[in-house]
Amino acid sequence: MKNRYFLAFFFSCSLIGFAQQNTQKGDSLQEVVISSSRIDLPFNENSRTIQLITADDIKKSGVSNVADALQQIAGIDIRRRGTSGMQADLYIRGGSFDQTLLLIDGIKVDDAQTGHHSMNLALPIEVIKRIEIIKGPASRVFGQNAFTGAVNIVTKDSLDNDASLRVQAGSYGQISAAITAGVSLNESSHILHFSKNSSNGYRYNTDFDNQNFVLKSTFNTNRLPINMLVALSEKNFGANGFYSSPAAIEQYEETKASLVGFSTTIKKGNFTWKPRVYWRRNEDEYVFIRKNPSIYRNVHISNKIAAELNGSYTSNAGVTGFGLETAKVVLSSNNLGDNNRFVSTLFLEHRVELFNKKLDITPGVALTYFSDFKFFAFPGVDVGYELLDNLKVYGNLGYTYRIPTFTDLNYKSPNTIGNPDLEPEKAFSQEIGVKWNTVRFNVSVAVFNRNSNHLIDYVKMQLTDPWQAQNIQDVTTKGFETQLLYQFNINSFNQKLQFGYSFIQNDIAQSTFAFSQYSLNSMKHQFVGSYAMQFLKNFTNTVSYRYAERTAGSSYSVVDLGAAYRLRAFELSLFANNIFNTEYTETNLVPMPKGNLLFGIQYNFR
């Protein structure tokens, strides 16, 4: 194992050296500004492990949803239950699904009910400009839930009076249709999207019927632009084995997630102000027996209303970032009862650059008040040093917390009992890395460690006892991660190679309970690779490979193919998933579908 670890590290460092000899400075990727925090920084100036998925990456891969797009990033574990991102959980570096924060244009869409519903608002790919992935301790920047990192979905600014109509059909009776349109007026611009996706299911009781609506508008564009985002996602699906045990084949669920947000940016002198208000709502109805809901049925409605004022001040001493956010979360549930939580967070950070801007240091802290858990502090610091042009070493460390969900605290069923006395999960995380970013090469290598305490587990002493939530687990997570992107041309056609490898080792403290439901089944070894190629005019195709070996010992390899052909205003597409019919599961022993196809045709109005 140590030899494999060393060889991977040596291979990555060799690539960095090769890149240094064969590339030069500056490309559009490096100029992308990561604006999800208070201090705006270009991609290559950040002293953190940050990766980007662009709209072009998504289009060339052939995937139809955010969950599938994230599968190609090392260190990201997407545990799906079925096709089309039907029900998926997001994990970073071995954390849990509620320890990764999802944002949309900087808006936090965390799920206080259970954490399983965060990905319900992952937007349709037609409106996405890029996806920013921030790994490592991020609570001092984003607050709670950024325990192991954060993913920010950035929407497109405008479509320049364009419109498109897309229809897709494929295996398991899957049919989808989408219309996306954009218009730019004298004082405003607007993007409108509507899509519907349905399937008979790839096995018994896995059918689904989904709808998505997105409206992105910018008003007062010639003076002080005000951005409005409205999103609605409805999902109705059979949940064969999705929750409980694999024997629970008759489960069914309906969810409806919505988001309304307003924001703007005000620049005055050395100050930049970013006020934002938003409302996030989620409705969830779960029945244990689809045709007989009276046997067991849960209905939950959660609302989160929040206001933020973030800002920065630039002076000779550096850039100071500051922010204040308040949120009210209200839950109404026939199982969890009526609950509410008030959260208020004060952010403060300062970035200073020394030695001709070669050294940057950014200490910061987030102070948070929870009405049901009182005060907590999330201090941390990022440090970076530019050894050579485009070659940078960096490190960061910080404290992180996760507040128990209302399900952890109050859930009641014949087999599972929540615990209102649970304490927040805590961790101290450290990371050291090196990255080389140039025109053709982007290479990064990172080593990380996370000491977690009071992780929540469901345990019992006797086999006949119900599971009960307890703060029982102490886990030390160590890991290594590397990512390589190489772009080159063949006969004037652009080619793009990406490779990534992640290794995670968990040391779990021995539990004093006889039985434990805690399933720490992270990806011990993960390798991802893709080749986006083009050899003919108007024809592109991508081959993607994923290998995963989990802590529990299971392993699998999956190969996907995507292809697209453009003929005037028409675009023809094909996505082939799991072409070698690999048998595997990603979570809860739910078998993933074998080889399946999705054909599409899109017409672009211009």
How is the topology of this model organized?
Blueprint: H1 2-22, E1 33-34, E2 41-42, E3 49-54, H2 55-61, H3 66-70, E4 76-80, E5 88-92, E6 100-104, E7 107-108, E8 128-135, H4 139-142, E9 149-155, E10 163-170, E11 174-184, E12 188-199, E13 208-219, E14 226-238, E15 252-264, E16 266-268, E17 271-287, E18 297-315, E19 318-333, E20 339-354, E21 359-370, E22 374-388, E23 391-402, H5 406-410, E24 416-417, E25 425-437, E26 441-460, E27 467-490, E28 493-508, E29 515-516, E30 523-536, E31 539-550, E32 555-567, E33 570-577, E34 596-605
Parallel strand pairs: 6-9, 24-27
Antiparallel strand pairs: 1-2, 3-8, 4-5, 6-7, 8-9, 10-11, 10-34, 11-12, 12-13, 13-14, 14-15, 15-17, 16-17, 17-18, 18-19, 19-20, 20-21, 21-22, 22-23, 23-25, 25-26, 26-27, 26-29, 27-28, 28-30, 30-31, 31-32, 32-33, 33-34
DSSP, total strands: 34
pLDDT < 50 runs, ≥5 residues: 1-27
Structural class, by secondary structure, is mainly beta
Instruction: Give the termini separation.
Output: 55 Å
Give the overall silhouette. Answer: globular
Radius of gyration, taken over Cα atoms and rounded to an integer in Å: 23 Å
Helical fraction: under 10%
CATH architecture: Beta Barrel
Integer count of domains: 1
CATH superfamily: TonB-dependent receptor, beta-barrel domain
CATH class: Mainly Beta
- Report the CATH topology name: Maltoporin, Chain A
Largest sheet: 22 strands, antiparallel, barrel
Helical segment count: 5
Q: Strand portion, in percent?
A: over 45%
Multimeric status of the protein: single chain
Overall mean pLDDT stands at 90
